[in-house]
Design brief:
This protein has 575 residues and is an alpha+beta fold. It has 4 domains: 11-91; 105-211, no CATH class; 243-447, Gcn5-related N-acetyltransferase (GNAT) (Aminopeptidase, 3-Layer(aba) Sandwich); 461-574, no CATH class. It has 26 helices and 12 strands. The strands form 2 sheets. The chain has a 9-stranded mixed β-sheet. A 3-stranded antiparallel β-sheet has the order 1-3-2. A hairpin with a 2-residue loop joins strand 7 (317-325) and strand 8 (328-338). The longest helix is centred in the last third of the chain and has 17 residues, at 558-574.
Length: 575
């Protein structure tokens, strides 16, 4: 459909008004939005920045529609949006690259495992971004080619006048593959060790390009086939819930998804992140056997996904989350748990920031508390702006402050309270970026059981790790191969484990991996039989099909908690 410029108003003004009122609901707002949308549907938008602003309003209204009429015209406009983008001329059109919308491209050095997944899922959509690659200070592909090609092919590599692309294209032109497909094929020759290849590939920082076209994964198009729509009839909820109160409730109903549905959610989550140049470790290795869907009402659903057994963290349990409203991904979250601590955070995508973030986080915290039981909530300083400009710009510190979180560092806590007093006395006052940077120097916490306490109760995983390093040094003279070979049997004898018959390979893998951890615990051999058996159960459950039971059993093992505290005390005293 060709858009005309026959509207009575400048499209810039129409788009600005729509942007201003998109998050206002009730009263006459649905009528105003409909009038604006109808007028814009017949109006050409000749500039990229205006078109992007219009796009963001449409995406917002898809997730937060006033009524069926608004939703219908929004869906119609988004379905044809690629035509609007194609009408733009370069170089103006090129400014839309990196936005993740239809008709544009992305360029980003995605990590090894995500690159493999992209190639498998969308083989002709992703390639090496050679325009960016050629501007790199070095040529990491050329540097590695001697280890990847056959011996007699290396004369081409040694020729200083031979462009790297000529070497690559000598084969791609014959096989009909692109340069990334070629490189990933020969990269597999390097080693069977996936961890080694990941380390090397990620250090190469190869820029990739994704030609989005009109693919379903574009931000313009992405949407789950949802059930009943929730239409926003009244103003959005702006209140911040009492987390101590809401987490005492157990009325949420998480549902374990079948694999096919789980895969659809995981794929959507990955592409929602990729379209924004982001990745999450637990998402990269999402476990299709552990994806939960929890409907919250108001059109909101939280999807939580655990990790595949092989790639789980040593002691921590790391879960990714996708936040969806009316089928539209509007943000993501993480929950990383160990003992009674959960590192927790959500991030609402910029397009949907004027929404119900307080309500969403309250339900997010309630869900994790109901499923896993951790009561010490921790927000890492990165989330509020430490080395994170987006966190500073969004004012994330005050979002968590209003939810009851406080800085662990006392000086930051006093500064925040002083700033909060200024804001309360002067509604026009805004915290400066310099002060926000100071506030971002500290992690934040909220203890659901101990009101008014903001002490650091995090477990030092690094010190637990160093205890194992010292054990390897003292018992195996630093021989890690011997330690990995002998520690499992030593742990079996110490824990009086007679047999692992009937265990799955992943359960055996994790018992063996955690053997050094167990052996490094103080006075393990003196534990009573029941405590030893429970520790064996914990080690086994780390490799279970789903990790939820591990989180609970780790937290509930009192003797293990005491031993960890003693180990950490000894580490501090011995430092």
């Amino acid at each position: 459909m060709t858009k005309t410029a026959q509207s009575g108003q400048n499209p810039s003004k129409l788009i600005q008004i729509l942007s201003d009122i998109k998050s206002s609901f009730g009263g006459d707002f649905p009528t105003q939005k409909l009038e604006l949308l109808h007028e814009l549907s017949d109006t050409a938008v000749p500039k990229a920045d205006l078109l992007l602003s219009y796009h963001e309003s449409l995406c917002y209204l898809r997730a937060f529609p006033d009524n069926a009429k608004v939703l219908a015209i929004v869906e119609s406009e988004l379905a044809q949006f690629h035509e609007r983008v194609n009408l733009l001329k370069s170089p103006d059109k090129d400014t839309l690259d990196e936005t993740g919308i239809v008709g544009t491209k992305l360029s980003h050095p995605y990590a090894y495992f995500m690159t493999k997944w992209l190639l498998k899922k969308y083989p002709k959509t992703v390639d090496i971004d050679w325009n960016t690659y050629k501007d790199l200070e070095n040529d990491p592909i050329l540097d590695l080619l001697p280890e990847l090609l056959t011996y007699c092919e290396n004369d081409a590599v040694d020729d200083p006048f031979m462009p790297t692309t000529d070497i690559i294209d000598a084969e791609t032109s014959v096989r009909g593959v692109n340069r990334l497909e070629w490189f990933m094929d020969i990269f597999e020759r390097l080693s069977k060790d996936e961890r080694l290849k990941r380390l090397l590939f990620d250090k190469m920082d190869i820029p990739l390009t994704i030609d989005i076209g009109n693919q379903p994964f574009a931000r313009t198009n992405v949407k789950l086939a949802s059930g009943e729509m929730h239409y926003q009839k009244q103003a959005l909820e702006k209140e911040y819930p009492d987390l101590r109160k809401i987490t005492r409730k157990i009325d949420l109903k998480p549902k374990l998804l079948p694999k096919r549905e789980a895969e659809e959610i995981v794929n959507m989550h990955k592409m929602a992140m990729i379209m924004r140049h982001r990745e999450l470790w637990p998402l990269t290795f999402a476990n299709l056997d552990e994806v939960y869907a929890t409907a919250l009402g108001r059109g909101m659903t939280i999807y939580i996904m655990g990790m595949m057994p092989e790639w789980r963290l040593p002691l921590e349990s790391n879960y990714a989350a996708l936040l969806v409203r009316n089928g539209v991904p509007i943000g993501y979250g993480i929950g990383a748990m160990v003992f009674d601590r959960i590192e927790i955070a959500i991030n609402i995508f910029e397009t949907f920031r004027r929404s119900e973030a307080g309500f969403i986080f309250g339900k997010f915290a309630q869900l994790f508390n109901q499923m896993f039981g951790c009561s010490y909530l921790l927000i890492r300083r990165y989330q509020v702006g430490y080395d994170n400009p987006e966190g500073l710009d969004s004012g994330a510190y005050w979002f968590y402050y209003k939810l009851g979180f406080r800085s662990i560092d006392e000086s930051c806590r006093k500064l925040a309270d002083a700033e909060a007093a200024k804001i309360a006395s002067d509604k026009s006052y805004r915290t400066s970026k310099a002060v926000l940077k100071e506030l971002a120097e500290s992690d934040l916490c909220l203890d659901l059981k101990r009101r008014g306490e903001f002490t650091d109760r995090d477990i030092s995983l690094s010190q637990i790790s160093l205890a194992q390093t010292r054990f390897i040094a003292s018992h195996f003279n630093g021989d890690r191969s011997r330690a990995e070979r002998e520690a499992p049997e030593l742990a079996r004898r110490t824990l009086v484990l007679s047999s692992t018959k009937g265990w799955t390979p992943d359960e055996r893998l994790w018992f063996n991996r955690l053997a050094l951890f167990a052996l490094s615990l103080p006075n393990l051999e003196e534990w009573v039989t029941r405590d030893k058996q429970n520790l064996v159960s914990i080690m086994k459950s780390k490799g279970a099909l789903r990790e939820q039971d591990y989180v609970k059993s780790l937290r509930e093992h009192r003797k293990l908690t005491e031993a960890i505290n003693e180990l950490l005390t000894n580490s501090v005293e011995g430092a």
